[in-house]
Automatic annotation (TrEMBL):
This is Dihydrolipoamide dehydrogenase. InterPro entries: D-isomer_DH_CS1, FAD/NAD-bd_sf, FAD/NAD-binding_dom, FAD/NAD-linked_Rdtase_dimer_sf, Pyr_nuc-diS_OxRdtase, Pyr_nucl-diS_OxRdtase_dimer. The lineage of its organism: Bacteria, Pseudomonadati, Pseudomonadota, Alphaproteobacteria, Sphingomonadales. Residues 346-446 form the Pyridine nucleotide-disulphide oxidoreductase dimerisation domain. Residues 8-323 form the FAD/NAD(P)-binding domain. Keywords: FAD, Flavoprotein, NAD, Nucleotide-binding. Binds 1 FAD per subunit. It comes from Croceibacterium mercuriale. Its cofactor is FAD.
Amino acid sequence: MADTLTCDVAVIGAGTAGLAAERAARHNGASTLLIDPTFNGTTCANVGCMPSKLLIAAATEAHRIAGADLFGIRVGAVTIDGPAVMGRLRSERDRFAAGTRHAIDRLDPATTLRATARFIGPDRLQLDDGRIVQARTIVIATGSSPLVPPPFAALGDRLLTSDTVWDLPDLPRRLAVVGSGSIGIELAQAFARLGVEVSLFDRGHSLIKLRCKKVHAALQAIIERDLTVHQGVAILPDRTAEGVRIRWNGDSSGEAGFDMVLAALGRPPNLDRLDLDKAGLELDEDGVPCHDRSTMRCGDSAIFLAGDVAADLPLLHEASHDGAIAGRNAAAFPAPIRTPRHVPFSLTFTDPPVATIGDPEAEGAVTGTADYGDQGRARVEGRNEGLLTLYAAAPDGRLIGADLVAPGGEHLAHMLAWAIERRLTGSEMLELPFYHPTLEEGLKQALRTICAATPIELPVDQDSGTPSGA
């Protein structure tokens, strides 16, 4: 008879979300079992945030050197050593990944199970080593994987994904990137700035699904300076002796040859091998368990989701927050502990960076725009390009969202996300100090527009009939 292990909280998956869930459950007094087939570290360290930023850092340096003439600095011929670029990327990536694995190694080995798991009941898991886990509650944190449709899978070793691109021994000469989400557009621009001939293809018409048309237009102009963009097209890739031949049709049509194809078509959640039908969960139209983001609980069950597998906001800080919420609620089950979620906030590390924060323009909202094409500090640094749009709620001008592509965008975005989360108004932001000359000063243009459109009426003093404070 198979051995049966028991615990209060079983966590499937030892990535960012799973580790946070296990830690939160344990710190709240629950006994835990953490289940993972490899315990190889997090997606961020291995194939996500860190290797992509290492490639982008190399591309940024190459682009900076190429622009030195603007400052009267003459640079001789610059050679990009592809194997050295990729070698440093992997070396640093491995160092980051080792750090996450070291944290996992510090866990109690009696509570870490190297195995895959599938449901055989709402509170029971079958491990591939034959053992069974009986848990009071279960957290699913199995992450996501790159989508590879059949036409792309047939390309064999000419196909790259966001999991495999980091293993390239050298930079390709010609690269087709399919998909203009955050991953696709980041890597397309980075490879292009490292001397690769890049073409970007997308079935849609919106890069990174940006909400503001003005910001989108600014981003598109920036991206098209480095690479060729084909939007509104369907593509058909074919393997050839020399590489890959791509034919496309739609808003434009044509065909071209490439050394490699990078499929950046999204990362669906890893749910296929869990036998969710045995868990009795209600699934949405995409096959993801329906869940409450304030608790991460799936319906009325004792099962919780955390991280990319929830298909909400596939971002590291959201995965960590998911895990903490799911683990705390799994430990406290059945008593719910509802947690307010942070303002939605995503960054794409193009140059300049793109950010989407909070709510878009809605009925009754007002907008303010800041143009970084002639902003003082940006012009000083030769980075004067991009646009920022703020959204504010009427009638008080409370900030509710922003879209931007601007120099220093990752820092501007953090400041705006914090202001939105603290429910600041445009006038309250303007009352704060802005040092001169900084990129932050560029916000004043947008904030003043919002303040002009949302004048705040002072309460009237009932005795004098004049506004209080007048």
